[in-house]
Amino acid sequence: MIISIEKKKFSEAVHTVSRFAERRSTTLPALSSILIIAGDEGIKMRATNLETGVDLKLEGDCTTKGAVAIPATILQQIASSLAPEGKITIEHAGDTISITSGNSKSVIKTVPYDDFPSIPFPENPKNRVVLPGVLLRTLFTFIAPCASSSAVRPELSSIYLSIEGGVLTAAATDSFRLAEKKVPLSNKGSQGKFLIPAKNALDIAQALPDDDIIMSFDEHQCAFVGDGGMFVSRLTNATYPDYRQIIPKESVVEAVMLRKDFESALKRTTIFSDTFQKVKMSFDPKKNLFSLFARNIDIGESSEAIMARISGSPLDLSFNHRYLATILSLTPAESLSLTAAGIGRPLIIKGVGDTSLMYLVSPMNQ
Amino acid sequence: MDKGNPRELWEYMLTQVELSISPANFNTWFRNSFIVRIGEDGVVYLGVPSQFFKDWYLKKFHALLLKIVRDVSYEFRNIEYLIVKDEHRKIPRENRNIRGALELPLDEFYINKSDNLNPRYTFDTFVIGSFNELAYAAAQATLERPGITYNPLFVYGDTGRGKTHLVQAVGNQFKKQYPGRKVFYLTSEKFVIDYTDSVQAGTANRFKDKYRHYDLLIMDDVQFLSKKERSEEELFHLFNALHDTNKQIVFSSDRPPVAIPDIAERLKGRLASGMTVDIGEPDSESRMAIVRRKASSHGVLLSDEVVEYVATSMNGSIRELEGMVNSIICHAQVKGLSPDIAEVRQSLRSFTRPQKNISVKNVVDKVAEYYGIDEESIYEKTRRREVVRPRQVIMYILREDFSISYPTIGTKLGGRDHTTVIHSCEKIKREVVVNNELAKEIQNIRTLLV
């Protein structure tokens, strides 16, 4: 195999692909490698860790065809050390490849590529959705942090995606808080739902291109195909809890305030939160004051009052401040609306004017 | 292995797969898979974690796995791969103990500490034939009225005839019939050790008391008491003490009491004073019954052909017979099938000894060759010294090793009288003891003859 690629393209591709290679070294060597294929379809790079997989197309000149697997970490280190201009030539001979760029030449031992698994495409991709990659990327990166990081309940460490009536809904919860985001789709016809592991979604999101991609899925597998290549992930085979049930329909009190007021008040109050990271929230409809209070017996206490438009009856609730802070990264809206349904019931936070997002936090015991 | 049990089948398949692929491959691809179920139509449904696995199994391991299950049984027609739900992937482990029962029948080695009896030896597992009928009847009679009917009961017979089984069965049955009474089983060797230990420790009195409070004392292999005078005396006193209080005593030995060498006369008399029964050589029907019983107790059914082959190809010790059956059972359990006659023949090759059928002429040839004389001269009436000695050696070997009768030896070696043969044999037998040179010569000739 002899190929030559522009250095910049090569580096970008290696960075994208190596994310999908297995990071643990204990398993099959082929899994922690990048497979470079030069064939009729051009130059391709592949990697998989059996959870996710990538098949990326590269622009370049292919002199001789062939396939070779190289340890991902080595390739990544080389790629990050390359100067951006010029081309590199990769030549495969025996059980080594040589990478030549300008005056430098590195020879790397290859890994047997017979063991390299095939990247599975959904068997019957009946469900196909075309959407801009950038949309899916923001969706995944926003929602994924709300999923549970523990593997005990696979459904909770996944993102729930459902397509219905031309709207793509993504939801993630770790049973303490829940984030749901809706995006409209251009084609209204298709519908379906699936659970993608949040970790895989993040990996894929970071590699997705900005332009339109085709998202297809079946029962066990999903794929995101763009011009540049294909990304696949296994799906979680579990039933997602019916989270709509826990969303309170009625409300006791509603407060609307400026985002920057809330942000700075929360930031200061957080300093005084105790070991349980507890922050108390009070709604005072008479004075139109929304206040945050925290007390730590070792440090002291702090209370912050914010002017807000409050309608309803007075209410005190306590929350984990980390869960409150999450909303700030979820919505860019200038004002926030907080809706409480009573003591012990979850609080709904939305961005004013941002109907796509709904964030729900369960209160702590008083 | 139970081929209908998905987990056992999968574990068997894993062991086979592990041999064929690299450890890294094995760990990557086979860790999280298992057999979901085995379909009625012979399709094995294999649960895998994701599409990656399914594709790769189909591409790389399908042929291998199919070959393995086909080797287990032709009932398995195909393998299909299912992607299983994450929460179902953890296989239930609660039925682990079932496997333990199959792995090692540890109870076979279990011995009750308080009475030294092995619960495996019971009358239920004792095969009765014409050869041991009398001994069995005597044992039963003893159990009817212990200490009175036959006291002591003395069972003798060659090694591996089931003496130990019989006397232990008496002990186990006694325990069942008379729950309050005490039984103790020991070998004479244990008795000697116990005695010497107690003398060393200065607790001889405790030793005496220890054995005197048993209602049934079973002593195996009393012939080993010969030349142990102090122990014999101790046994003599113990015997008197038990016998006088009508406590039952059971002995076993490989020879009758009178034939036990170097044992005090007064003890000999006492050993023979009750009931003395022998266990003969089992006839072929009994042997077949034993083989069948042993195999079925392990849950293996052997065909009549196999049973007959096993029973006839080995004569003598029942212990060796059981060894053969065990080896067949082991083969059967590993393969999961009842073995056929060809396999049995193959697996028992190591057990069967070469038949000792050898012609007189062959022996004469070998001996004459060894001594460097003309073989014709052996048959002649010459009394030359260099011929006489080899001729005597031939007679001795024919008699000792091949058990040919004296008259036959005489006729075969040039029509000699049987008394001549007897004299020669006796002479060599005497000389072998004192003459090392001759002993070595005979040893060399024996190796030539094998």
From TrEMBL, chain A:
Limits of the DNA polymerase III beta sliding clamp N-terminal domain: 1-120
InterPro entries associated with the record: DNA_clamp_sf, DNA_polIII_beta, DNA_polIII_beta_C, DNA_polIII_beta_cen, DNA_polIII_beta_N
Main location per the UniProt record: cytoplasm
Pfam families: DNA_pol3_beta (PF00712), DNA_pol3_beta_2 (PF02767), DNA_pol3_beta_3 (PF02768)
Molecular-function GO terms, alphabetical: 3'-5' exonuclease activity; DNA binding; DNA-directed DNA polymerase activity
Domain DNA polymerase III beta sliding clamp central: 137-242
Signal peptide: none
Domain of life: Bacteria
UniProt keyword list: Cytoplasm, DNA replication, DNA-binding, DNA-directed DNA polymerase, Nucleotidyltransferase, Transferase
Domain called DNA polymerase III beta sliding clamp C-terminal: residue spans: 244-364
Record-stated family: Belongs to the beta sliding clamp family.
Protein name: Beta sliding clamp
Organism: Candidatus Kaiserbacteria bacterium RIFCSPHIGHO2_02_FULL_54_22
Automatic annotation (TrEMBL), chain B:
Annotated region (Domain I, interacts with DnaA modulators), positions in chain: 1-87
Region (Domain IV, binds dsDNA): 333-450
Binding residues annotated for ATP, in chain numbering: G160, G162, K163, T164
Gene Ontology MF, one: lipid binding
Gene3D superfamilies: 1.10.1750.10, 1.10.8.60, 3.30.300.180, P-loop containing nucleotide triphosphate hydrolases
Record flagged with keyword ATP-binding: yes
One GO CC annotation: cytoplasm
Gene Ontology biological process: DNA replication initiation; regulation of DNA replication
Xref: CDD domains: AAA, Bac_DnaA_C
Reported function: Plays an essential role in the initiation and regulation of chromosomal replication. ATP-DnaA binds to the origin of replication (oriC) to initiate formation of the DNA replication initiation complex once per cell cycle. Binds the DnaA box (a 9 base pair repeat at the origin) and separates the double-stranded (ds)DNA. Forms a right-handed helical filament on oriC DNA; dsDNA binds to the exterior of the filament while single-stranded (ss)DNA is stabiized in the filament's interior.
Domain notes per entry: Domain I is involved in oligomerization and binding regulators, domain II is flexibile and of varying length in different bacteria, domain III forms the AAA+ region, while domain IV binds dsDNA.
HAMAP family hit by this protein: DnaA_bact
Subunit (UniProt): Oligomerizes as a right-handed, spiral filament on DNA at oriC.
Name of the protein described by the UniProt record: Chromosomal replication initiator protein DnaA
Source organism (scientific name): Candidatus Kaiserbacteria bacterium RIFCSPHIGHO2_02_FULL_54_22
